[in-house]
Amino acid sequence: xxxxNPKSSTHLMSAQSEVPEPLEVLKKHFGYDSFRDGQxxxxxxxxxxxxxxxxxxxxxGKSLCYQLPALCLDGLTLVVSPLLALMKDQxxxxxxxxxxxxxxDSTQTLEEYRQVMxxxxxxxxxxxxxxxxxxxNERFRASIENIKVSLFAIDEAHCxxxxxxxxxxxxxxLIEYAKACKAERLLALTATATKDVLKDxxxxxxxSSSCAVxxxxxxxxxxxxxxxxxxSERDKTLLSLIKSADGGAAIVYVxxxxxxxxxxxxxxxxxxxxxHYHAGLKDDERASVxxxxxxxxxxxxxATIAFGMGIxxxxxxxxxxxxxxxxxxxxxxxxxxxxxxxxPSVCHTLACSEDLIPLQNFIYGDTPSPVALTKxxxxxxxxxxxxxxxxxxxxxxCDVRPLVLRTLLTRLELDGYLKGGTPFYAxxxxxxxxxxxxxxxxxxxxxxxxxxxxxxxxxxxxxWFQIDLExxxxxxxxxxxxxxxxxxxxxxxxxxxxxxxxxxxRYTVIKQPDSSEAxxxxxxxxxxxxxxxxxxxxxxxxxxxxxxxxQTSALCERFDRALEKDCGHCSYCETKSPVxxxxxxxxxxxxxxxxxxxxxxxxxxxxxxxxADVTRVLCGLSxxxxxxxxxxxHDLFGSxxxxxxxxVRDQLQRSLAIxx
Length: 660
Ligand code: ADP
Known about the structure:
By secondary structure, the chain is α/β, with parallel strands linked by helices. It is 44% helix and 15% strand.
């Protein structure tokens, strides 16, 4: 049964009154005079009780589409976003407007969690932000099923679609969760959905096509340019483009972290105000680069795609692609950060076919081999009933990358083989911040004994003490939860620094497959399809760059509809000729390498079962099994990294057929 929410201070609808006029709410609570394109249509659908989709460009004002209804509807608005860290600013700015919103994440204590749930139940909290992973937590699922959810908003909704560029199967589970909490209406939000992806979103979430609001893709202040370059000339070309621009802040997108560092260094040594940014930097370093970029009107940030999400800077004058983007969806998301103030801005791509190889290798590297998948299926279904597993260990055991493994497990959940439970930490680590005597002296006799017993269970490594909670719980005849609560308390009080480690995922086997080989084959077919789709997406980027018609119009057509007339300022419109990108050189694998590769396979049949496995070695794509078998140290490892996966595989296949 749903609990009803009593009227709260920010809650605008009383039992008798009509739903308030959206425009009035906008003025009164958000201080804006008018709606932006698309907002009113989406909000009206929602307030009429219908589910809706909002496809607006980044910065287009999607958040208002759930923030405003949250004030008008009588239940909770639950916002699911994979970018939870970026939601902090939103929550703070809502607080400034007197609207109470919170987020739940894994760093919160039980006490904080209870507070949030209490605030929801007594109607104080209008909006709750959570990451999709939160639904893996059974306690959260159970709590939310007892709360009236008026609106279930899903950010980055394109992740639900297999046709999208960032398919995340865990998004498909959101549909089940939305049903389980009897959400009255759904809102799917995204900045990048092709027509097919939008159709898929609507189908999956049961949104009528008349409630899918797309604000159009065309932005006439963006000039889209592309030019073919040799990789040796890229730095020079980029510098001259930057010099000839009128100044202003810019983002240079690259594929690899080391390229970000190299290019930023190059620009600095040429007198430019440049810094690099990538996921390898520490949190505070990243925050400081962002801060510097946001405040400056001449900063150039050289970044991997980790940069840009949630950056609210309207005067970015140029976005350069030093390397090719992975797909046209990625491209449009990345250029979407330019010129949000409506002033002219340039998006310039340096097209170099050598980029294809590392980009393709990322894709091939994620495809598990049939042997790995068979091992995966056998391992998972060696269990019956409930079991727990560490993704890290499973990844090593089956030789599948952890992220890919997560996708496979989700697939099994969606196909009804498994049911996921709450993940838990197998062990804790702590570092005393004072002597154990000092700590123990702070407690009464009973507690002192308990904590002393707990400390005895810990094993010291160099700096940290490790504690296996399962073993400690048995030894102390005390429930695991009590041990965790004690360690958390000592951590909160500044007596210990505490870290949870060794996360384990819990599953229950619902049904066994008829045969693990057949299941492994089905999973492999899925993976092969994904691989082909991603490779095709990459090719579409090159095809678009080399088009012999208006490129802006073609891009608009892919996402929405073609322009009525050509844009007049893309590369094609400016030059009336297509950009010609040289085909990648087809180097052959030296005979000696082929021979050694055949020999390597013969002596490692277990790890290198297929030509694709040997290709991985030659192209330098690492895997847990390769490291274990020391293949990553072999001379052949990475010896063909410049040739390209498909070409190496074809040549190898021929050679293995002759010699194998
Ligand atoms: P998105 O989620 O689509 O990227 P946001 O929701 O973050 O965009 O909105 C971008 C900015 O636009 C925010 O600063 C927001 O306050 C502002 N904004 C949203 N709606 C309006 C409006 N109707 N009038 C003026 N500013 C608005």
